[in-house]
Amino acid sequence: MIYKSNVKELLNTDKRGQIVKIDGWVRTFRNNQFISLNDGSTINNIQVVIDFANYSDELLKRINTGTAISVEGELIESLGKGQKYEIKADKIEIHGDCDPETYPLQPKKHSLEFLREISHLRFRTNTYSAIFRVRNSLSFAIHKFFFDQGFVYLHTPIITGSDAEGAGEMFRVTTLDLDNIPKNESGAIDFKSDFFEKPTNLTVSGQLEAELGAMALSKVYTFGPTFRAENSNTTRHLAEFWMIEPEIAFADIKDDMDLAEELLKYVVKFALENNAEDLDFLEQRLIEEEKQKPQDQRSDLPLKEKLRFIIENDFERLTYTEAIDILMNSAPNKKKKFKYLIEKWGADLQSEHERYLVEKHFNKPVILTDYPKDIKAFYMKVNDDGKTVRAMDILFPGIGEIVGGSQREERLDVLTDRMKEMNIPTEEMDWYLDLRRFGTAPHAGFGLGFERLVQFVTGMGNIRDVIPFPRYPGNARF
Ligand code: ATP
Ligand code: MN
Q1: Are residues 85 and 211 in the same domain?
Q2: 75 lies in which domain range?
Q3: Engineered SS bond to 396: which of 33, 247, 282, 402, CB 3.0-4.6 Å?
Q4: Angle of the 126-148 helix axis to the 276-290 helix axis, nearest 10
């Protein structure tokens, strides 16, 4: 009996002596004898040994980097170092050829920029296959964490009729003929003839709808794509990214912080336990990459130690006001090294400030709370001081903001006042206000940017490298 398997299973379980069948893509072919075969199940390749006397020259010539093949043969103990088992091939079939003259991936180091240009093929490299296996684990771990705690996974809409969240610039969704836009008497666009009979956009956040769910199901979360038409070409922003947004009823900001910290530690631990080899590879990659950097810009901990550090240490919790104090008295502020100097309470924190707090001052993840209400969203609960809101942002080393959340304003009068103050039309948001009219309750939630999490765990510097097909200004290929 031929045992059909994959590389991961063959390398990790004892199937010695079995006749096995395996499919994959050739990574390298040496001396007309040794094929390194990979099928994406693991970072490791399995070695296939062939006796070239048994195969035609014509077939041997077709075994190139990238060729898809099927192998049958006995799994034997390997004499070569670096692997435990190898396959002694009896039969090789070619699924698909790969012309070495034109195939862009060669068995050598390619730059991440180059690989981004060929995102349709980059999964076949060690780096990207490792990243996407880690991404998969993190995604599964998130669902598992919430499921085990009795959360309901709620699918919130992607097309939205409200732009109240104000989290960022939105993408318009329309079926109007752009070459012939219908106008009304006053010359404005006539949205009555558009598909939804009103202006609609791609969502920037599922929070408001998640709140509706939490006010009946108590504990919900969303995990879906969100869209922001922000023209910021940074290493931490995408135009299309995935966000995890839990919303919990009968909870305050402390419960919210506890939940976020517990979730982050859980998923990082899950990846360490389930993707050890991928993370070893990514750690090594990072060490090589950092050798190019000046000493003072290298990270002090290897990747896996950095991840363990997150799991084992409490995040530092402090208020915005305390953070402003630290920043105002910091060396880079006094020596005018910050691009945006912190001059007074009320200033919005830029990523340089967040990174100073996390990477220089505390040297660990930081949760900042109680921001000035003027720099935060309308739905955040106003503190008794009347000046600050119960917001909480989690800042991570190398990443900056990874989570943004708050306790929500559950008092109808305070919420309507805030909305008026911020020019948010209350009539259109009647459904949201209904929550505060009928059985309102304290509740809280946050948004965790999934790609920023994947970036942190994989150690990748650019967010465009942790999503299969990144969307950013000027790029919607593939
Ligand atoms: P930033 O200040 O970094 O732009 P934000 O304040 O706009 O973040 P929120 O609106 O609070 O972020 O969104 C919640 C989370 O979503 C953020 O903490 C971050 O992890 C993630 N996030 C926000 N914008 C983006 C983006 N453009 N691409 C990827 N992730 C994002
Ligand atoms: Mn933003």
Answers
A1: no
A2: 3-107
A3: 402
A4: 130
